[in-house]
Design goal:
single chain; 6 helices; globular
């Protein structure tokens, strides 16, 4: 799987090492286990998916992480991306709006050795202002726009990686906060994500 990702253009060896460290089959439904190391997305319940490994690696690479960085992930999902981030040596805060997924990962991640990841149930559009500012933010679902609340939780000089667009295809963007008021946006090609939803699902 790592060679496939490298072949698609991911060059950061630290990212590839982190991908290799985190067993992807741990995060997948038993009916998909045999496909765990294929470069494909798979359903994980609650209408959500585990992203394809290339997407996880590319988004992680775009963050340009340094050890010790404080990182907010919006959309915990299965917890796979959060664990890859943690394997990069950063402090991970992750938020999930689907209660069933949150309840599952809250117990599961510590059981596989990732108990340092701080998990929260809430609305990703609002982020975690109490715990900010963050060095980096990663949004793992397709956002119709760039939420100001998330930009405001970036440190000056910090970067957010976020897929933006309505419909089936989004454009991966990096948003770097230059000053209190200014930001720089760069585009990094098309990707497919489940939509980023507002308001918590209390069920």
């Amino acid at each position: 799987m790592v060679e496939t990702i490298r072949g698609k253009g991911v060059k950061d060896e630290n990212v590839l090492i982190a991908i290799e460290k985190v067993p992807r089959h741990f995060f997948m439904d038993s009916s998909f286990i045999e496909f765990a190391y294929e470069d494909k997305a798979f359903p994980i319940g609650a209408g959500q998916t585990i992203s394809q490994p290339y997407t996880v690696a590319r988004m992680t690479e775009l963050l340009q992480l340094k050890k010790g960085d404080k990182v907010l992930e919006v959309g915990t999902g299965s917890g796979y991306q959060a664990c890859v981030l943690s394997a990069m040596g950063v402090k991970v805060y992750t938020i999930e709006r689907q209660k069933s997924l949150y309840d599952k990962t809250k117990l599961f991640l510590p059981s596989i050795g990732f108990g340092t990841i701080k998990q929260f149930y809430g609305d990703g559009y609002k982020g975690l202002p109490t715990f900010g500012p963050f060095d980096k933010i990663i949004v793992t679902c397709g956002a119709p726009y760039i939420p100001d609340a998330l930009v405001n939780q970036l440190k000056i000089g910090g970067t957010m990686v976020i897929p933006v667009g309505e419909g089936e295809v989004q454009v991966m963007q990096t948003v770097t906060r230059l000053t209190e008021l200014d930001k720089e946006i760069r585009l990094h090609g098309s990707f497919r994500f489940v939509p980023m939803l507002e308001d918590r699902n209390e069920k």
